[in-house]
Design brief:
Length: about 240
């Protein structure tokens, strides 16, 4: 798969891991759609950074949990770049919450955004990604750890992994690969929010490589799966975590 003149949608691309993925794919030659939920200024910063480096990008607002928004996201990509070749679903939310009845609102929100959103984005990807394209969904390596307070988040991300594996089989015959990438702890705003310095340091030491991941670490794995050397990997969960799990 030659990235030249190929297009990629990256959801949740205005910050964190999604931003790093969008920048990396643009550097690899993809025309990139920067999806964002609400922060237009941050999304435009990513577009400007890509354009300043000679790449092509547009920002498209869409709430991934809303069918009409997701359909508009793919239609806008079609209009801007003539088609869709790669979809990277990075958008998501995380709230620490125990498995308890008073956590139901947090549980519902994470399933609504993380799992329903993945279902809708993958469903549109199945309709629109051109033959020999790539679909990549972001999961989490915390699934293997079963930490307290992560129950709702783990439930949502385990569902994402299941959807990716099933879609790989449903797209048989079109040469489209579908995979999930499961980061370990990565030093993003989403990860750092609500954690003490001690907790952050402890998680940084948990992997044998003894550091937090960087967004660019995850972007490199996604770029491999989206690029010419990643085509034989299909229906897999790639745990990009420095040995965390």
């Amino acid at each position: 798969m030659n990235p030249s003149s190929r297009s990629a949608i990256v959801t949740g691309a205005s910050r964190g891991i999604g931003r790093a993925i969008a920048l990396r794919l643009a550097a690899d030659g993809f025309q990139v759609v920067i999806n964002y939920a609400g922060n237009a200024a941050k999304a435009q910063e990513v577009v400007a950074a890509i354009q300043a480096s000679g790449g092509q990008a547009v920002a498209v607002q869409a709430d991934v949990s809303q069918p009409d928004d997701v359909q508009r996201l793919f239609a806008s990509t079609q209009q801007a770049f003539g088609g869709v070749d790669v979809v990277v679903h990075s958008a998501g939310v995380m709230t620490m919450a125990p498995i308890a009845t008073d956590s139901l609102d947090a549980f519902d929100r994470m399933l609504h955004v993380n799992l329903r959103g993945a279902f809708l984005v993958l469903a549109e990807a199945a309709r629109h990604v051109r033959d020999a394209g790539r679909v990549i969904a972001l999961s989490s390596s915390v699934i293997a750890k079963s930490f307290p307070q992560y129950g709702p988040y783990i439930a949502s991300k385990a569902g994402v992994e299941g959807l990716a594996r099933v879609l790989a089989n449903e797209l048989r015959g079109r040469r489209i690969s579908v995979n999930a990438v499961a980061p370990g702890p990565v030093g993003t705003e989403l990860f750092l929010e609500g954690k003490s310095a001690e907790q952050i340091a402890q998680l940084g030491r948990a992997a044998p490589l003894e550091r937090l991941g960087e967004p660019e670490d995850i972007a490199a794995v996604v770029a491999f799966l989206a690029g010419p050397d990643g085509g034989w990997v299909n229906g897999q969960v790639v745990r990009a975590n420095g040995g965390f799990a």
